[in-house]
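Continuing the batch. This is chain 6 of the set; chains 1 through 5 are on the previous pages. Same settings as before, nothing changed between runs. Recording input and output for traceability.
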Amino acid sequence: MAEAAAALDLSSFAYLSIPNRPGDAPRLIPNYPSAWTKHYLQHHFERFDPVIIQALAHPEPFEWGLGVGSSMPSEPQRELFEEAARFGIRYGFTIRIHDARGPAAAVTFATDERQPKFERCINENGRVLQLMAMYFHAHALRKFTPDRIVDGVALSPRELECLEWAAQGKTAWEIGHILGIARRTAAFHLDNAKAKLGVHSICQAVARLVVSNSTMQ
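Output for chain 6:
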């Protein structure tokens, strides 16, 4: 992600996954300064970070920073912005991940100055950045998620991943494209998942996955 972002003249990014269950820690993958990310997590800034609050409330990507937008941040929020600015994080473009499979997540591309180059990059490559965020989330979710038991049946990580994408309406060809595998390989994993779950269709397999997720929550 860092290399892909750098190719678009975006030096900083952060992926944040907010857990569904209270008390669970958020998961953060950034290339921000480590001192800032450690400070952010230690003080649970995700609980009142205006960027995360807006991302959870509104589905569309947005720009942020002091002086951006019409709303006035609260005093704690303004202080958070000022602290982040000391680490070179002053403005950004945040993308909410639309994912019914797991925790809410967002990917942010940040910069130390709101320069025309940054604005131009966002305007010209907004859709590309959204795809990058979606793919990164898929891989991060797979890394974070341990081997899963779906309705009492153990699926391999790849079988689960393909089934989760199928639950979002993706075809085997689309799943293969997203995961960088052949369509027949994606179909093979879906067939294995169906066989293990003892069902005859992808719809039935997805239904068992949904029931299993609901039970876990």
